[in-house]
Amino acid sequence: MRKIKEFIIEKLILLCGVASIIFVVLILLFLLNEGLSLFKDIGPYEFVSGKKWYPISEPPQLGILPLICGSLLVTLGAAIISIPIGVACAVYIAEVAPSWIKDILKAGIELLAAIPSVVLGFIGMVTLSPLIKSVFNLPTGLTALSGSIMLAFMAMPTIVSIAEDALYAVPKSYKEGAFALGATHWQTIWRVILPAASPGILAAVMLGIGRVIGETMAVMMITGNAAKIPDGFLQPVRTLTATIAAEMGEAVVGSEHYFALFAIGLILFIISFIINLTADLFLHRKERR
Amino acid sequence: MVKFDVRNLSVRFGAFNALKGITIRVNANEILAIIGPSNSGKTTFLRTLNRMNELERAAIMSGTVELDGTPINAISAEALRKRVGMVFALPLPLPLSIFDNAAYGIRMHGGKSKQAVREAVEKALKQAYIWDEVKDRLGESAFKLSGGQQQRLCIARTLAVEPEVILFDEPCSGLDPISTAAIEEAMLKLKSVYTIVLVTNNVKQAARVGDRTAFFLMGDMVEIDKTDKIFTAPSDKRTGDYIMGKFG
After folding, report:
1. Could you state, in order of their start, the residue ranges of all structural domains in chain A?
2. Which of B108, B144, B158, B170 should be substituted to probe chain A, the one whose Cβ sees the most A Cβ atoms within 10 Å?
3. Contact between B108 and A196 using a beta-carbon 8 Å cutoff
4. Among A13, A133, B50, B147, which residue carries the largest CB count within 10 Å?
5. What would the pLDDT profile of B41-74 be if each residue is shown by its tens digit?
6. Rounded to whole angstroms, how far apart are CA atoms A137 and A59?
7. CA of B48: how far to CAs of A217, B14, B45, B170, B241, in Å?
8. What is the C-alpha to C-alpha distance for residues B243 and B223, in angstroms, rounded to an integer?
9. What distance in Å separates the CA atoms of residue B122 and residue B167, rounded to the nearest whole number?
10. Domain coordinates in residue numbering, chain B
11. Distance (Å) from the C-alpha of residue B220 to the closest C-alpha of chain A?
12. What pLDDT was estimated at residue B196?
């Protein structure tokens, strides 16, 4: 009797494990099927390097270079803002802050992670973009810069919490060894703790960037959604994700436009996959040590 | 000459009294061995001498500790730790090459040319009796060394910054007898230049290398005397019992 129970439980767990993998594979297959259908009509190179995205003109022009540029620009901006602040914040929490400040900061960061992205986008739209508009004297405040700043807020909790874990994981002995040689606190952080935690910090950065690149709602609300190649942070841009979200509802099923949106999804999938894989490699390198 | 003058030192971690009014003088160029069972305050005493206890938030200290007549609290912690080096129980190489490990402290304190750093590293590695074993593989990771070699590398790293005092915190607790012998030999040579305080769980090690030996028990110093005297005619019965292995 007990044996049967064990058997059933074991198989149920196995089923759950396998199911999640099957779903991922099915999603990937669907994505591949729909996305690759596009390339019967236009070449992949043409699709990726085309400078014009006019999906509803006749014939439709489906070049996603402006969208890729938009995504990259917003992500780059968010990375430039969030990585130094996030890592510095993690160092402060893990190494410097007295415990009561540490508690407050950690709670605050968790709270930041809990804000739904649509709320962040909304707040950005009504506060940040008018500010950017007046500071830089622009025709519109809905720019790549606004998107980058808002996305930096979203990447920060991921970066801080994972980098902080990496810093905590540095053996206390390294720290004591450095102190015993007469290192100052800062020298210890800069020359021992940060290098020792660097694989974990890199993973934190990659996962933060992964979050940014896949983010949709906030960027759709505050980047202006102009599908043209930007030449600076102060112009409206449109990202890959926002394009799918905005246009999927109106694309005719089975049309080139519809397939093109799936192809964009495929490209996003590949980008996220590469980022997660890189993060994973860094994390595992740390474990092997 | 008195190197460290410790008077009425008490250290408390929260509600736990780790040291209860210790008075000790450490003479220059001697090896002072400190023995005692675990939780007797030996390591706490050692970590007071280079202010490492301050890294624990809950530590509260009273009494005075003077190094060459200056209270150690009047010296910055970094400057003090440069003068008073420490070797830990477990070898703690940093995740760097052998050379970079040995050069770590010197580089951090700065102000030396590449050539000077190389010379200092070579000298330190020779003093720690590890030069011959590593001179052809200085670029390899320090983790590739055996435990005994790692510990001698850590001693070299401490020596390279040219301290005046070296604190050894059970330096051989994880090592085999041959590595232990190598480290003890190094200590005996080093005492001509350095003052050494050795905390050890190994009573025989104290007998082999200590000029004087102090016996700690439950945060008190029971007895301090010439090592020969402690081991042949201790004045306190508890010292004798501990050395004989009746408790501990």
Report:
1. 2-40, 53-288
2. B108
3. no
4. B50
5. 999 999 999 999 888 778 888 999 999 989 999 9
6. 38
7. 56, 16, 5, 16, 28
8. 12
9. 22
10. 2-244
11. 25
12. 94
Which one of B52, B79, B95 has the shortest CB-CB distance to A196?
Answer: B95
* pLDDT mean over A42-58: 84
Q: Which residues pair with A211 in a beta bridge?
A: none
Nearest chain B residue to A99 by CA distance is B57
Whether CATH 3.40.50.300 fits B2-244: yes
Choose among A173, A181, A289: nearest Cβ to B105.
A181
* A65-91 vs A240-247: helix crossing angle, rounded to 10: 120
Query: Mind listing the pLDDT tens digit for each residue in A180-216?
Result: 888 888 989 988 899 889 989 999 999 999 889 988 8
Contact yes or no for B92 and A177 at CB 8 A = yes
CA distance to A50, A152, A270, B115, B186, per residue, from A260 (Å) = 12, 29, 15, 63, 73
CA distance B248 to B241: 9
Output the six-digit token pair for A96.
């410097």
The residue of chain B with its CA nearest to that of A198 is B95
Q: Which CATH architecture has domain A53-288?
A: Orthogonal Bundle (1.10)
Contact status, residue B160 vs residue B127, Cβ threshold 8 Å: no
What is the distance in angstroms between the CA of the first residue and the CA of the last residue of chain A? Answer: 45
pLDDT digits (tens, 9 = 90+) for A110-158: 898 898 889 989 999 999 999 999 999 888 889 999 999 999 999 999 9
A196/B105 CB distance under 8 A:
no
B18/chain A closest Cα distance in angstroms: 20
The two tokens of residue B218 are 């439950």
- pLDDT over threshold 90, residue B9: yes
Question: Mutate which of A96, A174, A175, A181 to disrupt the B interface (most B C-beta within 10 Å)?
Answer: A181
CB contact under 8 A, B78 and A180: no
- B248: confidence class by pLDDT, cuts 50, 70, 90: low
Rama region for A224: left / alpha / beta (φ>0; ψ in -120 to 50; rest): left
